Amino acid sequence: MSALPVYRWRLAPDGLATRRQLRALGLRPGGQDVAGQLERPRRRRGPLVAYLYLIEQAKPVRPMTPAKWAALAKANAARRICPECRRDAGYVIPAALGMCTPCAYPDEQHAA
Questions:
Q1: Amino acid 1: pLDDT
Q2: Are the C-beta atoms of 54 and 15 separated by less than 8 Å?
Q3: How confident is the model at residue 34 (pLDDT cuts 50, 70, 90)?
Q4: Distance between the two ends of the chain, CA-based, in angstroms?
Q5: Which residues contact 109 (CB under 8 A, 6 or more apart)?
Q6: CB–CB of 88/81 below 8 Å?
Q7: Span 56-60, average pLDDT
Q8: Mean pLDDT score of the chain, rounded to an integer?
């Protein structure tokens, strides 16, 4: 059983990167195993952990196809439709409300 090498915050060797760092380089892990672990200490809780991947084994990010763009547009449009009144709210419906503002607070429209 092999243990992952653990590096302290900002002390990882060159050639290793987190998912976000790979993405900024236009890369993705591409199915490779985790090569290391980065830990950032915190005062009263456990450390923040980020997994590291080898940059040389990373693959390019897959390009968006027209079908993926269409699916993303449809998903984003669905987030704007109020489930109560079935209208496009013009903004993403807050998860805390679960409906558009006029449906969530119907009495406040007439107060103004």
A1: 43
A2: yes
A3: very high
A4: 68
A5: 102
A6: yes
A7: 96
A8: 91
How many CB atoms are located within 10 Å of the residue 49 CB? 10
User: Full-prediction pTM beyond 0.70?
Assistant: no
Q: How many residues would you count in the chain? A: 112
Helix (H) or strand (E) holding 50: strand 48-54
Summarize the confidence of residues 81-109 as an average pLDDT.
89
In this structure, what token pair is assigned to residue 89? 């709210």
Rounded CA separation 85/108 (Å): 17
* Encoded tokens for 33: 């195993």
d(CA 36, CA 54): 9
Cβ neighbourhood burial of 111 (10 Å; 0-12, 13-18, 19+)? exposed
